[in-house]
Amino acid sequence: MKPIGYYNYTVIATYIGLAAAGVGCFFAMEAMTKAALICLMAAGAIDMIDGKIASTRKRTTAEKQFGIQIDSLCDLVSFGVLPVMLLNCFTVPDAAKKTVGVLFVLAAVIRLAYFNVTEAERQAQTTGRREFYEGLPVTSTALLLPAVCLLGPLFQDRTYLMGMIYLSALAVIGVLFLAPFRLKKPGGKGIAALTAVGTLVFFSVIFVI
User: Fold this and answer.
1) Which among 37, 53, 113, 162 could bridge 155 via Cys, Cβ 3.0 to 4.6 Å?
2) Collapsing DSSP states into helix, strand and coil, what is residue 179?
3) Which of 78, 54, 74 is closest to 64 using CA atoms?
């Protein structure tokens, strides 16, 4: 008997990204900062290519809609829940951790749900490529938060301060998720630049943290 859902190659990369984030959550629970950050960045790298993989197959309307929903649900875990789980790696006040953590996940949920609605409307009107993001994409956490964590070695004797920096970064990013501004979606050169920066941050995380 076939299980419900879609399992063709267009969604496999998305599932792999979710698995990476899930493993990262377990690492974060054990305060294994480097391993959790590597999983976060791996999920981000996979997210960059899953859309291109999906575009290589002619999909039904149901498959396209499923792809939109599953991508956002996986993004919530990868770039909403995992960043909050990383708070376990830092020394921060418990009340602040819970407050910022819950609000960050809520902001990610709202942004992703809004994206789903607007993307479904856009695809009903055109088959063209999306040109702008509204608000900061949740996937940005895969690059921004590891970059913030690279400050860690500078605060080895002031772990509380580093924790507050990470907590503040979460708060600012959460606000930007819902901020009413338009951000141009990167083209070929922009993607190449982001890939280069991401590679630099990735190896910095491996050798510095």
Assistant:
1) 162
2) coil
3) 54
* Element holding 132 (H helix, E strand): strand 132-134
Q: In sequence order, which residues have a C-beta less than 8 Å from that of residue 19 and are 6 or more positions away?
A: none
pLDDT in tens, 116-144: 888 878 877 776 677 888 899 999 999 99
Query: Rounded distance, CA 90 to CA 97, Å?
Result: 10
Q: How crowded is residue 127: how many other Cβ atoms within 10 Å of its Cβ?
A: 6
pLDDT tens, position by position, 143-170 = 999 999 999 888 777 788 999 999 999 9
Backbone angles phi, psi at 184, to 5 degrees: -65, 130
Q: Model-level pTM?
A: 0.91
Per the CB < 8 A criterion, the answer to whether 21 and 78 are in contact is yes
